[in-house]
Design goal:
About 50% of the residues lie in helices and about 15% in strands. It is an alpha/beta fold. It has one domain (about 20-275). The strands form three sheets. A six-stranded parallel sheet has the order 6-5-10-9-7-8, with helices on both faces. A three-stranded antiparallel sheet has the order 4-3-11. The longest helix has 25 residues, at about 250-275. The protein starts with a helix and ends in a 10-residue tail after the last strand.
C-alpha cells in the first residue's frame, strides 16, 4: 500500500469521540507514519483521556501498543497493517519507535507500554464501575493476574478470565468465546494471544464483542501473574528490554529479535533520516448521535 494513500485516508465512520460534560466532543487525531504504520502522537495523559472517553461512549474501540515487531509484521502482512492503521488508538511501545520519530523531526512524547496502559485502564474501570475481562495466556495465568489487578486497584471487578487452546479456534469455539465475553459485559478486554493473532482476533470480533476498550496485551498477563519478569528500569529506558527478554527466552525469541526486528530497525532508521513527512491528521467530522 502506498504511503500516500495512508496519509490521505480518513477513517469512516467517525469513532474518535469523547463525551465531555454530557456532550460528545470528537478528538482531532495527530499520527506519525513509521514504516507504513500510523502511530498516535500522544503522551500518557492524553492516551488515558482517550481511553476514558472510549469507556464513557459504550461503543467498541480497539487499542494497540505498537513495538518494532509490530512494524516488521505489518510490512509482511497487509491485513495486520490495515488492523494497526484502523485501530482507535495505537501508541508507541518501544524506544526504537521514539528514536525514529526524533530522527524524522516529529518526536513522539514518550514510550507507552502495554503494562502502563493496562494499569491505567484498570484504574479507570474501577473509578467508573466497569469490569475487565482477561483472555489468553497459559492456563492459570489470567486467574493469578486477576488477583493481582484486584489487589492493586481497589474496587476493580475482574468479571471473567479464560485461556483458550493455543491454536486456531473453530467457528463454534469463537462464537462461544464471544458470547461468554458479551454476557460478562466488561468495560475493558485484555487479549494475550501474542502478535499478530491477538489484534487480528480483536479486529475480527470487535463489533460482536461490544466492549468499549479491547486491547492486545502480549505478555502483560504473565508479568502481572509473576510468570515473567520485566527488565530493570535502566534497560527499559535505554531500549534494551528486548535483550533481557531474549536472555529469558532465547529459543522462542531469537528469530523474532535477530532475524526480523534488527533489519526492521536498520530500515526504520535509514528511512527516518532520508525522508520527512508531515504528521497525519484526521480532521474533525460532524458529531452525530452514534459513535460507530
Amino acid at each position: 500500500m502506498a504511503i500516500e494513500s495512508l496519509v490521505s485516508e480518513v477513517p469512516t465512520p467517525p469513532r474518535h469521540m469523547v463525551p465531555e460534560r454530557g456532550s460528545i466532543v470528537e478528538l482531532r487525531r495527530l499520527r506519525l507514519e513509521l514504516a507504513g504504520a500510523l502511530i498516535d502522537q500522544v503522551d500518557l495523559t492524553t492516551a488515558v483521556e482517550r481511553i476514558r472517553g472510549f469507556l464513557r461512549s459504550g461503543s467498541p474501540h480497539h487499542v494497540m501498543t505498537v513495538n518494532l515487531d509490530f512494524l516488521s509484521i505489518a510490512q509482511r502482512d497487509s491485513e495486520f497493517r490495515q488492523t494497526l492503521n484502523g485501530a482507535d488508538l495505537a501508541v508507541a511501545d518501544g524506544m526504537p519507535l521514539v528514536w525514529a520519530s526524533r530522527l524524522k523531526g516529529q518526536p513522539l512524547a514518550q514510550r507507552l507500554t502495554g503494562v502502563e496502559l493496562v494499569g491505567e485502564s484498570c484504574r479507570l474501570a474501577a473509578e467508573m464501575g466497569r469490569g475487565v475481562f482477561l483472555l489468553g495466556a497459559a492456563p492459570g495465568v489470567a486467574d493469578r493476574a486477576a488477583r493481582r489487578l484486584e489487589a492493586d486497584y481497589p474496587g476493580l471487578r475482574v468479571v471473567g478470565t479464560h485461556s483458550p487452546p493455543y491454536r486456531p479456534l473453530t467457528a463454534q469455539e469463537d462464537q462461544a468465546l464471544v458470547r461468554m465475553i458479551r454476557e460478562a459485559a466488561p468495560g475493558c478486554l485484555f487479549v494475550a494471544f501474542g502478535a499478530p493473532r491477538q489484534d487480528l482476533w480483536i479486529r475480527a470480533h470487535l463489533d460482536a464483542l461490544q466492549v468499549p476498550v479491547a486491547m492486545g496485551v502480549g505478555c502483560v498477563l504473565d508479568l502481572l501473574a509473576g510468570t515473567a519478569r520485566r527488565a530493570p528500569r535502566w534497560m527499559q529506558h535505554t531500549g534494551l528490554e528486548w535483550s533481557y527478554r531474549l536472555i529469558q527466552e532465547p529459543g522462542r525469541l531469537w528469530r523474532r529479535y535477530i532475524l526480523d526486528d534488527m533489519p526492521m530497525l536498520a530500515s526504520l532508521v535509514v528511512a527516518s533520516v532520508r525522508r520527512e513527512q508531515p504528521p497525519v491528521v484526521v480532521a474533525p467530522k460532524p458529531v452525530g448521535d452514534s459513535l460507530r
